[in-house]
Each structure stands twice: as C-alpha cells, then as structure tokens.
Design a protein that fits this description.
Layout (H helix, E strand, L loop, with lengths): L1 H6 L4 H9 L15 E9 L5 E7 L2 E8 L4 H13 L4 E6 L5 H8 L5 E3 L1 H12 L6 H11 L6 H14 L1 H4 L11 H17 L1 H4 L10 H16 L5 H13 L2
Length: about 250
C-alpha cells in the first residue's frame, strides 16, 4: 500500500478510502448467441471464503461466493446461467461426487468431460507418486499416458490390468478385509469415470476442454495477487478478488 501511495502521490488513507468505495461490477454477462463449451470449478481463499467460477472462451461468465462447494450451490449457479439464456455445447467438470448426475439431469443432451488432471490427482491420492506394487506401477503408467492414447486403447489396458492382477486384488487379510483396497479403489475410479475421460476426443469438432485448467490457472493468478497483499481485512480482500474477477 505504501508503494502505491508513493506512486500516485497520495496518502495511504486516501487509497484506502478509494478502495472502500469500490463497488464490484455486475456479474450479469450477456449470453452467447451460440452454444459454448463451459468449464466450472471452485477454490477457496481461506476457510470461509470461496468462489465457484464458470468460464468459457477464456473469460468468466458468472461466479458465486461460497462457503462450501456442494451440489446445491452448483445447481443454483447452473440454473442461473440457464435463466440468462446460456446454452452449452459441452461441460467440463472436476469430478466432484454427484456432479455428473446433476449435470446430466440439467443438460441431458450435452457431452460431459471429466477433467483429466483431476482424475490423475485422484489416482495419485490412492497410489502415491511412487507406488510400490507392480500393479500400482502399471496403473500409474496407464494414467500417465492417458492423454496420449485413445479410449479404446485405454480400456484395453485397464481390462488387462484387472485380468493380470485379478487374484492379487482379491487377497484378504485374517479379518477378511481386502488387502489392497487403495489399488481396488483406483481401478474402480478409472472404470467408473472412463466414459467421461475421452469425450473431448470423441467429439473433436466441439473443441471440448479436456481439463479445468482455464479455471485452475486463474485461481493461481488471483491467489498470487492476493498473497502479495497479506494482512488485508477480509472485506478488502474480497473486494480485491471481485475486481480481479470482473477484469479476467
């Protein structure tokens, strides 16, 4: 703040008054005349203040201030966009539980793409970055090359892993519990999400984003800006974020 005061030859208090008087721009963006590829994702600036961002063609078309990223909030946002006249050629999501069913209910004819990076993150949580078992290493390799192969090859490789390690994955301990639950969970995740991982390749003309990187990249940029100004009061931090949103 002192640097800005020197730059504009005014006092810190004057800058603060200007900042306090800032009114966020309207969040109503005119709907596109044609269907667009929608991407949405959420992020948090601390525990109590988060944003759910809806982006298309490199710009924010709507955002919600949220305390938690739940299905009710997501549905509210999507219905708001519908009410404004937005139409979508595809929707790319982060894979949050229940989101697929919600999007299918609201947009039954719109192709859905699950963010590939989010899928990779799910598998990494199950296996760690360096799995110790041979089965885990093969799953990790398949996920690593996921974007470089087509759906048919992916499904063949996934089926091969299941067949090759079927007996291994069925092993139980003395209490009757499966011994390799995280490996089983990783394979279950890939099997369940497989129909949504290659939508962008199956519909090349729609130019569907394969990831939510458009949102994630913006989040990183905004957070870096906010981090520079540590110590801001919450209300000032929110105004700063709103300004960045309106100009992104």
């Amino acid at each position: 703040m002192n640097d800005l005061a020197d730059k504009y030859d005014c006092s810190v208090k004057t800058l603060q008054r200007h900042f306090e008087s800032y009114k966020p721009a309207s969040k109503i963006i005119p709907a596109s005349p044609y269907p667009v590829a929608l991407t949405f994702d959420g992020t948090f600036f601390g525990r109590q203040y988060g944003l759910l961002i809806y982006r298309t063609e490199g710009k924010n078309i709507y955002w919600q201030e949220i305390e938690s990223e739940n299905l009710a909030v997501i549905e509210q946002g999507l219905r708001h966009l519908i009410s404004l006249g937005w139409r979508f050629s595809s929707i790319t999501i982060d894979g949050r539980k229940g989101t697929v069913s919600l999007v299918k209910r609201l947009f039954p004819d719109v192709p859905i793409q699950l963010c590939i990076f989010h899928q990779k993150a799910i598998i990494r949580r199950y296996l760690t970055a360096q799995p110790k078992t041979k089965c885990g290493k093969e799953i990790r390799t398949l996920v690593f090359f996921m974007m470089h192969i087509d759906e048919e090859v992916f499904l063949q490789c996934l089926s091969g892993i299941k067949n090759d390690y079927g007996d291994f994955l069925k092993e139980r301990n003395e209490q009757g519990q499966f011994m390799h639950r995280k490996l089983r969970s990783a394979l279950r995740s890939l099997t369940t999400n497989a129909p949504l991982l290659y939508t962008y390749k199956n519909h090349p003309k729609l130019k569907i984003p394969s990831t939510t990187n458009s949102c994630d990249g913006s989040f990183a940029h905004w957070k870096a800006k906010v981090k520079i100004h540590r110590g801001l009061k919450q209300i000032r931090k929110q105004k700063m974020i709103q300004f960045l949103l309106a100009n992104s």
